[in-house]
Amino acid sequence: MSSMRTEIEQVGLTIAIVEDHADLRDLFVDFLSDMGHVVSGFALADDLDDYLACKTPDLIVLDLNLPGEDGYSIASRMRAAHPGLHILMLTARSAVEDRIRGYVSGADIYLTKPITPPELAVVVNNIMRRVRNGREQAIQVTVTPVSLALAGPAGSLTLTPPEMLLLKSLAEAPERQLPYWRLQELLQLEADEKSKASLEVRVSRLKKKLHTVGCPEPAIKSLWKEGYRLCVPVRIVS
Questions:
Q1: What separation in angstroms does the CA of 218 have from each of 19, 45, 78, 179?
Q2: What is the pLDDT of residues 101-140, one digit of tens each?
């Protein structure tokens, strides 16, 4: 499960589960929440609509046999209103015509019950990768080392030389992450706790600047007892 958790830490999904079976709904909400997602559960379409008035999730998990408006109708409305939304239909209906109707209604994935939480986790993890890739492609952050310029969707600003060195080093590192000792070495700091605190201050300032130019939080993630990971792609311009 460690590799799955690493992926989720980088992005995390906002998930709405519409399921009128309370025990099953709570099981899925708790399981996916424990994985690091932000999950809300609803029994009816009306409850979902109240939630959607304030927030648009990354993923909706839909039962089909719901009191009132059924899952097919909900999916059709959601697909029309939110074209980029991921829709997973999870139902006891296994007939071919039901599957076809599900996909025509707007489902990305159609799964039949019973399904175990680990199986659901694998499917959600695959959707999470697509969401992460879409977010990364939309960010478009560039740095120009010679002029110390940082540019993103919300504007541009100037980095200090140490900030540029930190950002460039993380951007070029495997998996965009480096251990504390290597970053301390690059900044010519001693390998002690005092220097580590100084490194944390510099990284914090760099994170604020990345957020200012439009990067989502966390732009840089602290890896406990290890180092730092850059969570957004950065293009280096010569």
A1: 31, 33, 28, 18
A2: 999 999 999 999 988 888 888 899 888 887 776 665 556 7
**C-alpha 86 chain-centroid distance:** 13
Q: At residue 113, what is the residue type? A: K
Which has the closest alpha carbon to 78: 94, 113, 102?
A: 102
CA angle, 102 then 28 then 72, to 5°: 15
- What's the distance, CA 28 to chain centroid? 18
CATH of the domain at 7: 3.40.50.2300
| Amino acid identity at 116 | T
Give the structural domain span for 45.
2-137
Query: Of 28, 31, 30, 36, which is closest to residue 6 (Cα–Cα)?
Result: 36
Q: Note the pLDDT tens digit of each residue in 5-44.
A: 333 334 478 899 999 999 999 999 999 999 888 999 999 9
pTM (whole model) above 0.70 = no
* φ/ψ of residue 237, rounded to 5: -105, 125
How much helix, strand and coil, in percent to the nearest 5, is found in the chain? 50, 20, 30
Domain finish residue from 81, 111, 137? 137
